Each structure stands twice: as structure tokens, then as C-alpha cells.
Amino acid sequence: MKKSAIKIIAVFFALMFAFSNLVTSMALANVGTPSDAQPDSEKLHALIVTSEGLTVAKRKTIKMTAKVTNVDTQPKITWASSDNSVATVNANGVVKGVEIGQATITATAVVDGETLRGEYAINVTSSSNFLRDLLVDQQILSYQYSYIDDYYYTNDKEAWQYNFGFGKIYDLASPYLLLEYDYIRIFFTYEDKDWMLQMWKGQYGMIFYGGEIGIYNREHVDDGMNEWTFFNCPAEEVWLNMEMTLWHEEINGTWTREFTREYDKYWWCTGFKNGHLRVEEPADELRLEGRITFKDETMAKIVADGLKECGFGVSKSKDKIGLDQYYSEGSDIYFCWQNISEAESTMAIKVVGGGLTALYLMPIWPLIMPFVSGFAFLALLVSVIL
């Protein structure tokens, strides 16, 4: 009797144990992995919009960013403005002030079939700089201004300088105009024309530093070319597509991107920032990076050989171009220029020229002194305005 009771109890507990295991297994199957069991609040997505500021001046720009939470990869963001007459926004979230007022900038994204929206109210205020506003919409002596990257540039499509060509005599005269820059030149012959590609970077007057790329040509002459050859500005049909970015080394050793001229067709691509270099000669604290698309691979190959002659090395990768190196790909040449320069030291030119000028003007110095003082005051005023 006792043995039968013990067997019945044992069977009962065995059945209970099997049933509990079955229930537990079914529960675990329904629950899934621990990550799936997280609260629903952690699965929710939200689109967060942030801005560099609450206001933007007319014709100025600020950058907005949008980020979706709880996603591994950020989706595509679509931007829109509630009132384009007050403020516009481009595909990259750059907002530009148009007229005084308020507009709402909306960012939209789609995640797992769900449309997310984020909004940011922006106030457009009046600009504080009349001259810059003027130079945004029209050129003065071929110069214009861009609020994006805060720099000045020449409108080479309407530049009066186009009529005067270029030669070394201009570079030799530059110190007397307070222009101190490094430069490199590449001379070559292509399709029955003599060509010169020149790049500059350095100090431009007392209040600007910047960089330039220029392309020039002339009818081919069998006598060849040298550094004294004078060139014309090329016809519009042979202008080249190019882009360039100027970098500046800060006093702490970090490099700051000053501006980027967008990829477009130019004969003269320029950009200038307010400021003064710590050392003008050589201008090694400036670095010019760029890309030039030539007419074909043959023209690009000729220019690449010219860069080698100037001292440039060849980069193995377009994405990792070292200092004073270039990378050639089809008709494109990518480059990074910092330390190479053909520019002569201008100290002797300035000392001799300045001394001779002082001796020549000494008899009439009392008469011209008021004009010199006026010019200095005007230069100071311009530096404050700009």
C-alpha cells in the first residue's frame, strides 16, 4: 500500500514537472530574445531638428541638421520652408534669409513606412553690412561676396581683368601693391596654342589672404615660351571646369577650411578672406586643394608632367593626396599644394624700390603727407567695414 502511494505521488510530481516545463517553453517562445522584450518606448522613432542659431540675417545662411532616433542608418532627409519669400532651404539643410520675417523649416523622413517630421522656426533679421549685401547681388570692379563661407571672389564671367592678359611683370609689380604670394607656373603647348596654368596663394593687401587658379593662352610661337612670355585670357569655349578649397593653419596647428569655390567653368578661379597671415613669405600656412578638368586626357597628361617638373609628387589615391602631390584620373587632375613656390623673395624689391621712391618724393613729402594719411585712414575704415 505504501509502495503504491509512493508511486502515485512520484507520477504526480513527474507530470507536474513536465507540465511546468511545457508552459515555460511556450512562454519563452512567445517572449523571444531579450532585445525584443524591451519597452515599446525604445522602439519609437523621432526626427530631431537642430540649428546653428535662432536667427539669420538677410542674404546670410545658417546650417540646420536633422537626425532620426533609434535607427542604425540615417534616412534621407527632405527639407522645406513654410515661406520661401522669407527664408529658403536647400537639400543639405542650408537656410538662407530672404526678407525680414519668420518661417518654419520642416524636415521630413520616412522610416519603416512611417513619415516623420521635425520643425524649426527661424527669424530673418536685417543685415548689418550694406557693402556685403551689395556685393552678393552684383559685382564691383569684378569682385563679389558670398555669405556661404564668408569670402570674396572675382566674377570672372564679367571681370575687367580679362582684357589685360597675364605675364610675369604683374607678379614683379605685386609687392608695390602690398601683394605677397607664392605661385607656380606650368607652360605647355596644346592644339597649336601656347598655354600657361598658374596658381597663387598668399597675402592680398593689408586685410585679405586667399588663393587663385588661372588659365591663359596665346597663338603658338616656334621660339617657345619662358617666364617672360605674355599670355591672353582664353576664349570662353576653352575655359576649364575646376574647383578649389583654401585651408589655413591656425596658431595652434589645426587646419581650418576657409572656403570652397564650387565646381564650375572658369578661366580665373579666386577666393579671398578677411585676415592677415602670420608669415607672408612664404605663405606655407595656406594650403590649396582643388580639381581641374582639362579638355581631354592628352591635355591632362601634359599638365601632370608640368606638375612633376614643379616638384609635385604623384599620389596613389584620389582620397589621400599628400602635401604637394597630385592625382590624375582621365582628364581630371586633383592636387594639394602647400610648400612649393617659384616666387622670388620680394624683400630686395621692396627695399630698393621703397628707398628710391622715398628719395624721389622727399622734396614734395610735406605736400603729399595729407594724402598718405587719408589713404591710411581709408584703408582702416575699409578693414572695419569688411
Strand order of the largest sheet: 15-14-17-20-19-18
The description of the largest β-sheet is: 6 strands, mixed
| Helix fraction bin | 10-25%
Secondary-structure-derived class: alpha+beta
Question: On the 0-100 scale, what is the average pLDDT?
Answer: 82
Q: Would you report the number of β strands?
A: 20
List keywords for this structure.
single chain; alpha+beta; 20 strands; 386 residues; Immunoglobulin-like; 37% strand; globular; 24% helix
Describe the structure.
This protein has 386 residues and is an alpha+beta fold. The protein has three domains: 44-125, Sandwich (Immunoglobulin-like); 131-345, no CATH class; 351-385, no CATH class. The protein is built from six helices and 20 strands. The chain has a six-stranded mixed sheet with strand order 15-14-17-20-19-18, covered by helices on one side. β19 (325-329) and β20 (332-337) form a beta hairpin. The longest helix is centred in the first third of the chain and has 30 residues, at 2-31. The protein is globular. The termini are far apart. 23% of the residues are buried. Residues 1-41 have low confidence and may be disordered.
